[in-house]
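Working notes for the structural subgroup meeting. M.R. asked for a predicted model of this chain before we commit to crystallization trials. I am recording the input and output together here so anyone reviewing the notebook later can reproduce the run.

Input as submitted:
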Amino acid sequence: MLKKLVFWIIIIVIVLIFLGTGVYQVGPSEVALIKTFGKYTHSTGPGIHFHLPYPIQSHVIVDVETIRKEEIGFRTIESYGKISYRTINEEALMLTGDGNIISVEVAVQYKIKDPVKFAFNVINGRDIVRFTTESVLRERVAVRNIDDVLTVARDEIAIETAEQVQKILDEYDAGILINKVYLQEVAPPDQVVEAFDDVNNAKQDKERFINEANRYANDIVPKAEGEAQKILREAEAYAKEKILEAKGETQRFLSVLKEYEIAPDITKKRLLIERLEEVFSNTKNVFVLDDSGTLKLLDVNELIGGGTK
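Returned structure, recorded in token form:
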């Protein structure tokens, strides 16, 4: 009797264990892929579910919401709550289009967009993302010079890499969606950092000198142009003034000539008087020494006045 009881207990336990292989729980960010005799049949969402016991049915759980990250050229190390980074030179060192070596550290963020393809077409999703990204990144760096990679082309390289990696993964039917590729650190190798800094400093000095020269030119050229315009306007004004004076003198001469032709003696005397008035306008008396050696005093006002009468 006891043996039978033990036997049935064992049978019940085995049945419960067998049935228990069909019970599974799916997390909030996960889906479960149900396989019947090894072939995918359907999917289930979050919650506690039951399928036929193994080996009739089995399940594969895939996290489809969590953003995953792969690191190329470096690794994040967490120890006792502290985070540090270690460079992987074998992955980080790359060759640029102008023959220079540069260290590039990249992080790739991705998620699962098709859990069926990811679970059944890909053996190791992390490796395929890392190796594909590294390959495409080396190709993108190799077609640019080192200055562009270090400065203006960083975002462009990241965008092109993400697009190309996504295209390759789609061709592989990997079921992976690349969210973002970002270049975390781009720098010359440690062995040539000092020499590279010297080159950069020289370039910056060159740009500074050019900018200073341009500022000086922008300051002095307008001043010189303004001074030239001022001199030109003064010269034009002086020329117009002299032309007008010459025209006035010409008209005066012609008018005098006309009067002279009518009355030569009168005109000659008038001109003489006008000249005397102009010369002796501020003089009252003039002393004259005649041929006999006598010093005579002439009254200019009387002389001029007498001449006009």
